Amino acid sequence: MPTPQQTRPAGPLPTLDADHSDPAYRAWLKEAVRKVQADANRSADTHLLRFPLPAHWEVDLYLKDESTHPTGSLKHRLARSLFLYALCNGWIRPSAPVVEASSGSTAVSEAYFASLIGVPFIAVMPRTTSPEKCRLIEFHGGRCHFVDDPRTVYAESAALAQETGGHYMDQFTYAERATDWRGNNNIAESIYQQLRLERYPEPAWIVATAGTGGTSATLGRYVHYMQYDTRICVADPDFSCFYEGWTRHDPAATSEHASRIEGIGRPRMEPSFVPGAVDRMMKVPDAASVAAVRTLERALGRKAGGSTGTGLWSALRIVADMLAEGRKGSVVTLLCDPGDRYLDKYYSDTWLAGQGLDIGPYTAALDGFLATGRWPAGGA
């Protein structure tokens, strides 16, 4: 994995003296950090939505709605943290591009922050990325650079940064260390603050999905740090290696195929995925993820992306386990981004047919569970 220093040319850029004590650079840096911090100061917290379950079940299910961020996804938090981390490390410089390997939402958010501080942005991503995400990246002033093989995004990003004299942000390495997991209004602290007046303020489980692994690392570390009894479950889609790597204790696990659930699932065990922060992994078929987001729309009137469905399916399975064991409590999962970015995918029966995905059995399983409180024998 190239380090930030390896992604730069050997000599100084014409836009900046090599000495980081240069007054012009320090003035630019101070203003850039102020702008990124001001974005956080302007942004209200995201909502915690209740998923309708029968009250007599004595189990409450919530979705942390990260789609309300300025760039519309959970990745807004990550992008802000990555930019602050890179700026304060002296890795981002005036006029030099920021380059990122991304399947979409992180790139949208990073394009926003690059525009905010006035530097170019290049997103390196699979050619299968949804057109709406590409449009949003370009709307924020970024440029899309496509690759046919998703496994090449890392090397291509590093090469582009080297070629342009820019900085490869490398979310898959730095996500877990750029976020302040002890608090400072990170997603974990926000969840607990918003639950404090609920009947079960300390959730039994928080369910996340993994792209970089940074969110699950933040949640798990915060729970341990605050000495809560909450457990962390990570839901993993088809064609991702996180489940296999975690269950087999194999940091070298890989997948030969690209995830169909944009934003989560990876072909390798990413450096930001912290296995020790996770209590349980659950493998979720892609058809189940799609069935779950369509169930969410019927329940809340909200469309969400496929990664939300992956987490929701797992959260409902956990609710079913709690009911079967006679346990009370609360479960939290994430609404990661809005479904209008995926109308031609997860909400398209034509796309499902083309992918060979039959959501019927999974939709029936969810409908049956929500009506009876019992998960079908054997599960869908």
3D architecture notes:
The chain is of the alpha/beta class and 380 residues long. The chain has a domain at 47-69 and 186-372: Rossmann fold, CATH 3.40.50. Strand 8, helix 9 and strand 9 form a beta-alpha-beta unit. Helix 2 (75-88) crosses helix 3 (105-117) and helix 10 (286-300) packs across helix 13 (360-372). The two termini are 39 Å apart. It has a 6-stranded mixed beta sheet with strand order 1-2-10-7-8-9. Strands 5-4-3-6 form a 4-stranded parallel beta sheet, with helices on both faces. It has helices at 23-42, 75-88, 105-117, 131-139, 153-164, 171-178, 187-195, 214-225, 242-247, 286-300, 306-325, 349-355, 360-372; strands at residues 47-51, 59-65, 98-101, 121-126, 143-147, 167-168, 205-209, 231-237, 280-284, 329-335. The chain contains 13 helices and 10 strands. The model is unreliable at 1-18 (pLDDT under 50).
- Note the total helix count: 13
Give the CA-based shape. globular
Q: Between the first and last Cα atoms, what is the distance in angstroms?
A: 39 Å
**In this structure, how is the largest beta sheet organized?**
6 strands, mixed
Total strands:
10
Question: Can you give the mean pLDDT?
Answer: 92
Stretches with pLDDT under 50, minimum 5 residues: 1-18
Beta-strand residue fraction: 5-15%
Question: How does the SSE layout of this entry go?
Answer:
Elements: H1 23-42, E1 47-51, E2 59-65, H2 75-88, E3 98-101, H3 105-117, E4 121-126, H4 131-139, E5 143-147, H5 153-164, E6 167-168, H6 171-178, H7 187-195, E7 205-209, H8 214-225, E8 231-237, H9 242-247, E9 280-284, H10 286-300, H11 306-325, E10 329-335, H12 349-355, H13 360-372
Helix pairs in contact: 1-2, 2-3, 2-6, 3-4, 6-8, 10-11, 10-13
